[in-house]
Amino acid sequence: MSTYISLSYLDLVGASVFLVLNALCSFALKLGLERQLLFSALRMIVQLLMVGLVLKAVFAASSALLTLLIAVIMITFAGREIRARQERRLTGIWGYGLGATSMMFAGTIVTVCVLVMQIEPQPWWTPQIALPLFGMVLGNTMTGVSLGLDTLHSTVYRERTAVEAQLLLGRTRWEAILPCARRSLRSGFTPIINAMAATGVVSLPGMMTGQILSGVDPQEAVKYQILIMFMIAGATGLGVLGAVFGSVWRLTDHRHRVRLDRMT
Amino acid sequence: MFKTVDLGTRHVGPVSINVARGECLAILGASGSGKSLFFRAIADLDPNRGEVYLNGKSREDMPAWEWRRQVSYVPAETGWWADRVGDHFDADGELEDLLRVVDLKDALGWDVNRLSTGERHRLGIVRALQARPNVLLLDEPTASLDADMTGAVERLIKQQLARDVCVLLVSHDPEQAKRIADRSMRMTGGRLQPETGAAS
């Protein structure tokens, strides 16, 4: 098995050549993307360097409280991202709280269960293992939840007449909104379903690639990747279900009315 | 049989009316005067205040879905949630007869996208009648129909009145009100007043 090959900063500069080439092409072709491309790359570099420093400190401290704090910060940012990715969102605290809460519960339950029952590090919250796992689960759940909520809100807004037509025939709010909810759930589940279908055939996932590059036996890396995919799929499913049905509950009331006034 | 007591929303009311069994009340008024919002409030589709009674029973004493089966509202713009027309109807013996009356007996196999506004409206009325409601709230039921079809829909309304269904009818046509309504009222700025010089 090959040993881990360390990268120098010069290697990173070399790898950026193709990105710079893209920016030059954009400039030459007047696409107007060069500034956005370079700014995003710079932002990524700063974010990763900072997270590298933070993680190094957190790993060294090996404190449960500090690990929890980092997890809370991750959830806060992901919650903000879910809100920002919705064209129409619930008003007030619901606009932020519902997506963030669903994602938090789903991500936490799945990650803690896997840490305690499958991976079993000592202690179970060991930051080197818990935080990267939680990050991967949270990132994917965030995508699913934001897609599900965005689809639900735009569909209910667009198809209010169809939903109310069913209510007027004596159907309950759950029955009337089910076609919209079904479409939203499908939208939220699609990325992870596609990812599972393509993994190993079209793409080698980042974590597995990272493990192989650092010298881990590919079969061991595959086992970890399968575990991660199960975690991501489980958490995404729970998160999307919770968020979509929570939002259906909020967008309707006890008299089975559609409450578009609760949406911006 | 059917009455509202100080029924209102942010834009309509308070409105108090009494409509007897088998009676047709026409509601006239300019666009934007609040006629449709009044019907939405009766059907409990928008938050509202006041009371509504059917046969002495308060609306609040029954679940919303049961209320809407008994007090059926057909809006000016009908809603469709499936691709095929037939998927919006429960198959029963009366359906074929109702479709024949509105000249749409073959429509169940059609695609919703091919329906004209008038066809949508006629099918919307048929769909509401299938629940055999006690009260019918019809919002401009003949607005996009030719004279023949207007006659057919008016006959359908009269059939319901003969069955003791109480009908509230929004119309822009005073002549239609005279033809089928027992009395007329006018909505102005969200308030309902007796129509002067109308059939009553």
Give a nutshell description of this structure.
The complex is a heterodimer of chains A (264) and B (200). Chain A is built from ten helices and no strands. Chain A has 264 residues and is mostly helical.
Keywords:
heterodimer; A: 264 residues; mainly alpha; 2 domains; B: 200 residues; alpha/beta; Rossmann fold; 6-stranded mixed sheet; globular
Write structural notes for this entry.
The complex is a heterodimer of chains A (264) and B (200). Chain A has 2 domains: 55 residues; 201 residues, no CATH class. Chain A contains 10 helices and no strands. The longest helix of chain A has 33 residues. Chain A starts with 8 loop residues before the first helix and ends in a 14-residue tail after the last helix. Chain B has 200 residues and is α/β, with parallel strands linked by helices. In chain B, the strands form 2 sheets. Chain B has a 6-stranded mixed beta sheet, with helices on both faces. A 4-stranded antiparallel beta sheet of chain B has the order 2-1-4-5, covered by helices on one side. In chain B, strand 7, helix 5 and strand 8 form a beta-alpha-beta unit. The two termini of chain B are 18 Å apart. In chain B, 42% of the residues are buried. The model of chain B has no long low-confidence stretch (mean pLDDT 89). Chains A and B meet through helix 7 of A and helix 2, strand 6 and helix 4 of B.
Per-chain topology:
The complex is a heterodimer of chains A (264) and B (200).
Chain A: H1 9-15, H2 17-28, H3 34-61, H4 64-84, H5 93-119, H6 127-158, H7 160-168, H8 173-198, H9 206-213, H10 218-250
Chain B: E1 2-8, E2 15-19, E3 24-28, H1 35-42, E4 49-54, E5 57-58, H2 64-70, E6 71-74, H3 93-101, H4 117-129, E7 135-139, H5 147-162, E8 166-170, H6 174-180, E9 183-188, E10 191-194
